[in-house]
Amino acid sequence: MRGLTAVLVLSLVALVEGDQVTEEGDQLSVEELVRLRESAGEERYAFSPRRVVSVEVAEPPVVDGVLRDACWQGLEPITDLVASDTGQAPSQRTDVFVCHRGGVLYVGFRCHEAAMEGRPDPTTPDYEPGDWEQRTDTLELYFSVANDHTDYFRLVIVSSLLERYGVQTLDKATPLILEEIPSLMVDVVGEGDYQPYLEKMTRDLGIESHFNFTGYIRYENVPSYIARADIGIAPMIADVGAPNKLFEYFALGKPSIASAQFGLTEMFNDDCVLYFQPGNERELAVRILELYHSPEKRAALGSHAQAIHDKYRWSVIKQEYLKVYEKLLNERNNGNRSTEI
Question: Which of 122, 142, 162 is the last residue of a domain?
């Protein structure tokens, strides 16, 4: 089954990466979709730029995963998705139905798949999800919280959820910036023992609607979360050197904010990373607002960060390693015992 992500209120968007689903969010313009595709790799998007309007129904559907209720049968499906790379309909059709009753919104998806032979029927009682569903089927809904035709401003943290990685600092910083960024959304990508504590903190602070804790995400789907973010955050409490997450942000040209750990400040200057004192949520809030109010600075930081990644990416660095090994082998073969490189 081809993957679909729906965006309601302003638009409906589907993001497809081969046979894998990659999550996308918010109401995105065609230009933004193309830009995201270019920055994130080989992903393809299918989108409907028109506004999606819910229809009020007389009787609500039964939420059972089967679109057999009378309300679904009476709705006109949304089917006008087009692929961003071809301008044509996607190879696999997706029907989307939207209705409401009594203040509750209902959304139904019918994802067509031409090659269903040999695959289990999900409507049978003995059905158990197999690996192919887990790899290909994901549906997510994103809503405009303010319903004011504005996009979310999105932060991302890619991290194991352990105390030393400092996600709690962003939790505490969030209430300090919501007045200026009411459309803030934070993707916390990863899992760990500290997740229940972090989720409870967002509830206690009344900010849980601004956080998306993804839990475990397959590694090939992580770039999509970074690609849709405005800023990458690396708020480590402990000095863990140069974390992978920062290079992942750099790879996709994202401006980054990181705690001023010695291992980072010695490697990267503030041309590509903005720093704050570890554990200082007020300073982190100031840095986020600084970038929120300056798209130009975000672009400059992202550009410098991507240049650093291009300089130190594995395809470049491995050649340097190979030169070292080649020099050592030549010296051994020539009887030269020098170890100077």
Answer: 142
